[in-house]
Amino acid sequence: MGNIVWHKTTVTKADREKQSGQKGAVIWLTGLSGSGKSTLANRVEAALFTAGHRTYLLDGDNIRSGLNRDLGFSDADRQENIRRIGEVAKLFVDSNAIVLTAFISPFRSDRLSARKRLASGEFIEVYVKCALDVCESRDPKGLYQKARASVIPSFTGIDSPYEAPEAPELTVDTEHQTLEESTETILSYLKEKSIIH
Questions:
Q1: Residue 46 CB contacts under 8 Å (≥ 6 apart), including other chains
Q2: Which residues are catalytic?
Q3: The total number of structural domains that make up the chain
Q4: Which domain, by its residues, includes 113?
Q5: Domain for residue 8, yes or no?
Q6: Which pLDDT score, from 0 to 100, does residue 10 have?
Q7: Is residue 10 part of a domain?
Q8: What is the pLDDT of residue 75?
């Protein structure tokens, strides 16, 4: 690492912000499997894109099928998964995109590490809150059923912990809020913080 020097580019983040009329940020959705992270991330991205904003969505299964296909689900692999995602998200923010991430990201320390890679105000942690029994009743991929049958070991919420955020920028309660209400909560926050206009 001693021979690596960060190369400064001619076009800066400020240049990109001025050209696009928006600020780069990461909307980091975290919550249990089945809480609605991917559905909500897709809806928010679609609303932003339709309004003319530069966006990108990083989804857990998509990332694990390519960039992180070499990782399993041990604690160490989960930490590395989130570390890589944090680095990719930072690149997107630097490119002036609003990047949405939809990952369980069960450990507070990993989410904090991702936050520390970004400037103040660029990391927006959104706790997609939903009770375990509700997530399990939804079980869109049949994962809880497999975890309960010991087919999937170390499954978050069953035999591996999920550490809920202690002070997220936003909490959306998908057990009691509609998808439209949760989407509007996030969009309103982005406007309030002047990330979008």
A1: none
A2: 105
A3: 1
A4: 17-192
A5: no
A6: 81
A7: no
A8: 81
Report whether 101 contacts 115 (CB < 8 A).
no
How many angstroms separate the CA atoms of 11 and 71, rounded?
34
DSSP track, the chain: -TT--PPPPSS-HHHHHHHHTS--EEEEEE--TTSSHHHHHHHHHHHHHHTT--EEEEEHHHHHTTTTTT--SSHHHHHHHHHHHHHHHHHHHHTT-EEEEE-----HHHHHHHHHTS-TTSEEEEEEE--HHHHHHH-TTSHHHHHHTTSS-S-BTTTB-----SS-SEEEETTTS-HHHHHHHHHHHHHHTTS--
pTM of the model: 0.89
Query: pLDDT by residue (tens digit) across 46-64?
Result: 999 999 999 999 987 788 8
pLDDT score at 98: 96
Residue whose entry in the numeric block shows the structure tokens 């909500």: 40
Report residue 5's pLDDT band, with 50, 70 and 90 as the boundaries: confident
Distance CA 26, CA 125 (A): 8
